[in-house]
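Morning!

This is the sequence you dropped in the shared folder:
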Amino acid sequence: MRFELRSPPALASVLATLLAAVAALAIARVTGADAVGRAFGDVDAPWIALIAGAELLTYPAYMLAYRSLAQVHGHAPLSLPIVARLVVAGFGPFALGGGFGIDRRALQAIHEDERSARVRVIALGSLEWAVLAPIACAASIVLLARSADVMPSLLWPWALAVPAGLAGGVWLSAPSRSARIRRPLRGRLDVLARALEGVDALRTIASDPRRFAGAWLGTAAYWVADIAAFYGGLRTFGLQPSPGRVIIAYATGYAATRRSLPLGGAGLTELLMTYALYWVRQPLAPALGAVLAYRAFNFLLVSVPALVAHRQLSAMLARGEHRG
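The structure's back. Tokens below.
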């Protein structure tokens, strides 16, 4: 299978940038030009260094998780140059199917196994939320216990749905039960069957922590670094919410992660993150500025390196340079 994008990457990047700009302008119009002007006139620039430094750390962290999880189903380790380019390309804002679409096609091209590629991509997305969701759940419970001035409708879903979802995932992933449920789903409901296989793969890495420690440690390090970058954006615009509010705003803004969303979540992420900050009682104008500062580093500035990484990845896979 040849590895390629289904849409012109440069054109898709321009479209993603336009979508993000439209979302930002829409929020700015609601907020008011005066309020936005005041927010951007009072910037604490040294905090930008935290955004940049933390975002740089997200890449080796995600590489660690990616390389470890890609070995599920007994596959040989991917070479570090391939993993580096896969990770950078997957965070680029030019894939209509999101970064996971790039992952699926690349893994299929490498291992010539379409089903395993799909399952591992689902497992990667499940792993992201298996680490982040319990943290957001704990933060929401603390905020509820303290009667914090945060929209209850924002906190209760995290407090209740996450434990229910994790319990359901554990129940469904029991080997005998999972196989019995998947069998009748083959065919017309194959998407659900593959989703269950992805949960099975997550159970596999949980049951062998020594072999797959990198998957858990890398994902945790990725979230810590990215949340630190988000916090740097908040401090750049003078916002100092509590850690719990930061986590809830961040996790709500990533209702679907940037790697899973089309075009790197352009437009949707800017809207959700800004209003999530507003829902945890942060002023809207500096919240918009904070999100734009954060997204400048994890969305806009990665565009060119991601395009280069994708081009190099295509050439390396064509030459068979994927073994560790």
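Headline: The mean pLDDT is 86.

More detail when I'm at my desk.
O.
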